[in-house]
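dumping these here so i dont lose them again. two proteins, back to back, each one seq then structure tokens. dont judge the mess
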Amino acid sequence: MEESEPDEKKYIAKWLKWKMSPEQLDQRHPYLSKAWGEEIANGAEIWFYRSPNEFWEGMCGREGIALVKDGEVLDDCLTVMN
């Protein structure tokens, strides 16, 4: 899994839309559930993110799953881009 650049993580932190439960993550992305299990057990949250519409209109839209703790994006997995 390729890690995002620090500036990209700042954008992702602004694009968080809704929180996922560990069970939802395990059903949809079991590999992430396994990879992030320790951080989740230590209080990190799982969030769905999506860039604003203007990014999609400009052909640089992104969405995915982010691992977040204390408002900081620790890791992410890009699932869709255009």
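---- next one ----
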Amino acid sequence: MRRLCQHAIMAETGTDDTGGRFTPLTQFDHLPDTHMLTPAEVAAAYRVHAKTPATWNRYRGLPATTTPGGRRLYSLGDLRRWEAEQQRLADERGA
């Protein structure tokens, strides 16, 4: 079993240790869905390693746009939809 820090557990399960919902994207509520985030911004929001968003893109279906230079960018709207889908899946597993 993998050992995860508490913030990574919250990012993966959508809950904190009190059972409340953890929503890291609320800090971006003032921005439109079309706003693009860098991998570092996504990682900081979810409190995970900077390479984790790329892993989520490859293995968990996190949508990303690749620039002509090969850099990944994440649409805030796509992140919100992906987070909601991950929460739905976590709720189904827990039910």
